User: Which sequence fits this backbone?
């Protein structure tokens, strides 16, 4: 293979970018505010995949790319690379998350109960056509907040902790690694066999569509696990920092997080059956992603389909690498393609020469 | 969260300031700056920048720690005499972070104690109202299961 330098196209490139922006229209704070206020789930998806919690910048990235999510994620990741790492927050613990939604498909009565929170799960999927007739929807709560005697508890224990107390799960020893020593795929290559920290971090920043596709393949029948959702949760996690002088811990604000536990009904020693769980969490509220990812967490490492192979799953669900590799094919490959063409022409010439030789031999005969 | 009528410790004060209205924090900081200037001791901005904070998360199944992502923050550090104030908030509002650091400095030194206390009480009341309203609505979505 050979590489050649090529010139030309600068003016066309500049005009192409200009045309893109002309077709997109002017970009201003109004669009950024509109996206921030009205499309939080879209921004959550972008922030989760970008692995950067910055709603205003996510809104800018979405607006600037006209809603091309892979470009938006790339923009956020690129911005992230310009910023210094200032600190490591204290670990987010499941029972400290301010929770607005927590449901279980495995148990109807769970410690703390089940709260549906904000969801459309049980709603009719019908377009609000009245909006197009100039009648906006109302968003007032039916709850009289001032007269409510008791509000919902704001934190809930992990369901796995309850199952562990009941002897359904093996005891665990909490990881005491200091935050700055936790393996980090943004600074180290993803190597196999993969560490649990790398696996969960890769799933957390994975492509929602890719994780869903592999998770769906797995749960639909190509995997060995029939999933039940132990719990799925949406909430706000405090970003706990340390005052650099006094050493006091404080919350610098809250980030939206989602998590899921997937459970199987039997695992391990047949004489001492235990539940087996998969786990996933991500930045932002993205239930589909964490459910599919926890399914993959549970099934990865089991023999069988590619969707159970850590290397296959984690390499192919990286949104920037996979989308980047896909779209790089539209960039000039003139030399490699010409090389293939020349090889093809060479074969054809050889075949023609053989044919001519064969014909000549027949004539001679 | 402490009751608004009680005193605040530094952790609570920092947390309330970080989630208070940026305009309110900046306005209080302006007032505090005037008082600091009157003291005759110079105020030095040691740091005022944006950057990233890694967010470790504990997996509930194996107890392992992993990074769920990073958060963009603005932080500031100011020095006045022997005291240092610090502020850090989500986002990239450097003035907000600087205002937080000045409020933290005042909190530690007791400067304009009544004004700082009034600000924190108002922030605590706003926070309690916001949380109360949200979780009253969340409570309304609690499922009461029955078995037939």
Assistant:
């Amino acid at each position: 293979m050979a590489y050649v330098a090529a010139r030309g196209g600068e003016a066309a490139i500049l005009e192409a970018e200009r045309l893109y922006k002309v077709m997109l229209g002017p970009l201003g704070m109004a669009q950024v505010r509109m996206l921030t206020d009205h499309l939080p789930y879209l921004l959550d998806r972008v922030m989760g995949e970008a692995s950067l919690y910055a709603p205003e910048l996510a809104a800018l990235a979405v607006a600037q790319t006209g809603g091309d999510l892979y470009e938006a994620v790339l923009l956020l990741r690129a911005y992230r690379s310009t910023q210094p790492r200032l600190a490591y927050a204290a670990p987010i613990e499941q029972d400290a998350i301010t929770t607005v939604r927590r449901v279980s498909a495995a148990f109807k009565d769970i410690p703390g109960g089940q709260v549906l929170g904000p969801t459309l799960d049980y709603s009719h999927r019908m377009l609000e056509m009245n909006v197009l007739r100039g009648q906006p929807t109302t968003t007032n709560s039916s709850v009289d907040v001032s007269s409510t005697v008791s509000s919902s508890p704001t934190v809930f224990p992990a369901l796995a902790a309850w199952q562990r107390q009941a002897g359904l799960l093996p005891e665990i020893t909490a990881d005491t690694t200091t935050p700055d020593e936790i393996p980090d795929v943004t600074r180290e290559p993803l190597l196999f066999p993969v560490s649990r920290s790398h696996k969960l971090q890769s799933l957390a920043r994975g492509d929602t569509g890719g994780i869903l596709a592999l998770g769906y393949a797995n749960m639909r029948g190509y995997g060995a696990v029939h999933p039940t959702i132990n719990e799925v949760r949406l909430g706000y996690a405090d970003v706990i920092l340390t005052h650099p002088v006094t050493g006091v811990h404080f919350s610098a604000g809250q980030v939206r997080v989602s998590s899921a536990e997937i459970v199987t009904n039997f695992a391990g020693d047949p004489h001492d059956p235990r539940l087996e769980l998969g786990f996933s969490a991500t930045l932002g509220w993205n239930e589909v992603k964490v459910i599919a990812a926890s399914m993959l967490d549970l099934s990865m490492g089991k023999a069988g389909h590619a969707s159970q192979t850590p290397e296959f799953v984690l390499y192919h669900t990286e949104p920037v690498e996979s989308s980047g590799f896909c779209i790089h094919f539209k960039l000039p490959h003139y030399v490699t393609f010409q090389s293939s063409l020349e090889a093809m022409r060479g074969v054809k010439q050889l075949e023609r020469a053989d044919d001519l030789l064969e014909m000549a031999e027949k004539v001679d005969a | 969260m402490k009751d608004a009528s009680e005193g605040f410790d530094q952790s609570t004060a920092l947390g309330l300031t970080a989630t208070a209205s940026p305009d309110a924090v900046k306005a209080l900081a302006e007032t505090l700056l005037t008082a600091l200037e009157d003291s005759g001791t110079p105020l030095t901005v040691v740091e005022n920048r944006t950057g990233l904070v890694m967010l470790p998360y504990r997996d509930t199944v194996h107890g392992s720690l992993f990074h769920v992502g990073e958060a963009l923050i603005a932080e500031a550090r100011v020095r006045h005499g022997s005291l240092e104030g610090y502020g850090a908030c989500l986002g990239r509002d450097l003035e907000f972070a600087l205002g937080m650091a000045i409020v933290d400095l005042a909190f530690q030194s007791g400067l304009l104690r009544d004004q700082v206390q009034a600000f924190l009480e108002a922030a605590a009341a706003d926070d309690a109202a916001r949380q109360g309203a949200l979780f009253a609505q969340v409570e309304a979505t609690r499922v009461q299961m029955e078995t037939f």
